[in-house]
Amino acid sequence: MTGLLNSFGRIWAIFMKETVQIRRDRFTFAIMFGIPIMQLILFGYAINMNPKHLPAALLVEEQTPIVRTLVQSLKTSDYYDFVMQTDDPRKTGDLLARGEVAFVVSVPAGFTRKLIRGEQPQILIEADATDPAAASGAVGFAQTILTDALRHDLKGPLASLGGSQPPFELVVHQMYNPEAMTSYNIVPGLLGVILTMTLVMITGMAMTRESEQGTIENLLAMPVKPIEVMLGKILPYVAIGAGQTLIILLAARLLFDVPFIGNPWILFLGVSVFVLANLALGFTFSTIARTQMQAMQLTFFFFLPSILLSGFMFPFRGMPGWAQTIGEVLPLTHFLRIVRGVMLKDTSLAQLQSPIIALCIFTVSAVCVAMLRYRRTLD
Amino acid sequence: MSGDYAIDVHGLVKRFGKKTAVAGVDIQMPRGEVWGFLGPNGSGKTTTIRMICGLLTATEGTGQCLGYDIRRDAEKIRELTGYMTQKFSFWTDMTIRENLEFVARLYHLPKIRQTVDATLEKLGLTHRQHQLSGALSGGWKQRLALAAVTMHNPKLLLLDEPTAGVDPQARRDFWDEIHHLSLAGMTVLVSTHYMDEAERCDRIVYLANGQKIVEGTVADVIARSSLITFRGEGPVSDAWPMPSGANPASNMPPISVPRFT
Predict the structure, then answer these.
(1) CA distance B85 to A198
(2) pLDDT digit string, tens, across residues A213-270
(3) Number of domains chain A is built from
(4) For FRET with B183, which of A61, A70, A110, B169 sits at 20 to 30 Å CA-CA?
């Protein structure tokens, strides 16, 4: 009996000690509550497995009541947000390649005439299938939407066309990924995810490890400038990032048969800037966190939205505006556009300008914050 | 005029939040001397040293170190001083040689390999150069640290309790080395708890509660205080003749606490 009581006493002692320590580490405490709140918001509000309001372009080469009905039905369907309508095929040329739209819907000249003659004219939907999940909903419902819309117009002399067979043919081109292979989307994306996770975490330890081991005092007492410390600490990991990239690209080719149709040098440029962005961010974390544990938690706090809001796991276009805005700040979002663009779409450097510039801006900002946060003294 | 002083600081104050660690310290230390920094734990010795070498920013006060302003020219001061921290702060997951090479590279020393070889030789660690520095015993760690912080031939050496936790023989060796460095022209400021070490300094500064209580030569300081020095005499033997059951402490004379006026 006394033994049991003593045991309770000791459990109580350890319980109290842990409580004191948990309360002292406010940062960890905040993360313990911050992470679940973030997860609730992201999973609950931001993620949409059946994305609607996807940006699309409309190429209509004739204007007739029937065509207007069809266009109107797509517009009101929630799936398509037409950001552009034109009758000039040249204007829709590289919209898909640049990733500005997810679909191009084309109604060719003479559509109405052929329809009335019962010649089964075609409507073409070109879908960006680099992310098959994002495209599937809108494409799947297109037939129903269009057929339903025509039903009202096919009256009187046209009633014979409104039979069980639709009077037109819907042709869908799954661009860049005709077989809708999920691995084409996931494996290039994984390159970005792996680089983000490992590089941010490892450089997050850069300064915190010196602090925890007490070697920071020695480092600070020596004549070395903050930017020199930073560059010296992150450059070895550029090589590690390059090694990881090589392994993943080889696996993509040999194990998963992911095509690589673009220019490898553009990807090389993209990977380089992306690796620097992550290393700079990790170093910034290590100037903010006081311990290695805190640096790990910061990394995780950054990693979670990176995976969920970048378009890696869930369709980027399917998220509400605020989530897309957050996504635009994350380096992974821009890198995914580069890596998927180069590997699957043969996107040119000019077409990838904006994600590359975005990554550069992110890197420079991270370096500036790190330099402002870097403490040259023990104050 | 301050060119004659290695350290010339006035009214240094350092506050951490509400706590005042150093409350107005003046030091004018001529070049080439060896000074001792004495005082109980928490008296502000480490904080003062850190302010002098630019590791902490003084809350108040001004000063120069080797002719450079301690606020503006911290970078220059870092190049010209060697600072040995109280706790061993070299990289324990690097070998002795790697640590020395790192320091040599950082200070742009010429002929890194030869310089490191010579340092190892002088230290007597050539045969252990590939061991991790973390595997060294306390005394060796201190000697390695001293060698590392003096490799770039600093003009001023700041040593923060370099002999804490080191055995008496190692302490004597350590002090011999300090005097060698002093003879070579280095100015040395050493903080310590040991009075016998203070006696090997040209002058001592005694700090308490963040203030300078007294400064002078050891003889001077003793004369100005009511300090009584005891000298113990007896047979030199490893096995002290001690009657069984006797409490050695009860035979000792009471130790007087220095009172400065």
Answers:
(1) 33
(2) 999 999 999 999 899 999 999 999 999 999 999 999 999 999 999 999 999 999 999 9
(3) 2
(4) B169
Give A161-216 as a 3 state SS string: HCCCCCCCEEEEEEECCCCCCHHHHHHHHHHHHHHHHHHHHHHHHHHHHHHHHCHH
pLDDT per position as a tens digit, B87-125: 999 999 999 999 999 999 999 999 999 999 999 999 889
If you search the block for the tokens 């003879």, which residue do you land on? B183
Provide the whole-model pTM: 0.84
Give the nearest chain A residue to B83 (CA atoms). Answer: A221
A vs B, Cβ pairs < 8 A, gives 47
Check CB contact of A231 with chain B, cutoff 8 Å.
no
d(CA B89, CA B161) in angstroms, rounded, equals 13
Joined together, the tokens standing for residue A315 give: 């369709």
The HSE-up count of residue A320 (CA atoms within 13 Å, CB side) is 8
Q: Residue B89 and residue A376: Cβ atoms within 8 Å?
A: no
Q: At A265, is the secondary structure helix, strand, or coil?
A: helix
Please identify which residue in the block is written with the tokens 């929630």: A78
Tell me the two tokens of residue A41.
């918001």
0.85 surpassed by complex ipTM: no
Distance, CA of A71 to CA of A62 (rounded, Å) = 12
| A238 and A367 co-located in one domain | yes
Q: A245-261: buried (b, 16+ CB within 10 Å) or exposed (e) per residue?
A: beebbeebeeeeebeee
Domains of chain B: 31-54+74-226 (3.40.50.300)
User: Measured between CA atoms, how close is A287 to chain B, in angstroms?
Assistant: 17
Distance of alpha carbon B139 from alpha carbon A208, whole angstroms: 28
Please tell me the distance from the alpha carbon of residue A58 to that of residue A84, in angstroms, as a whole number: 6
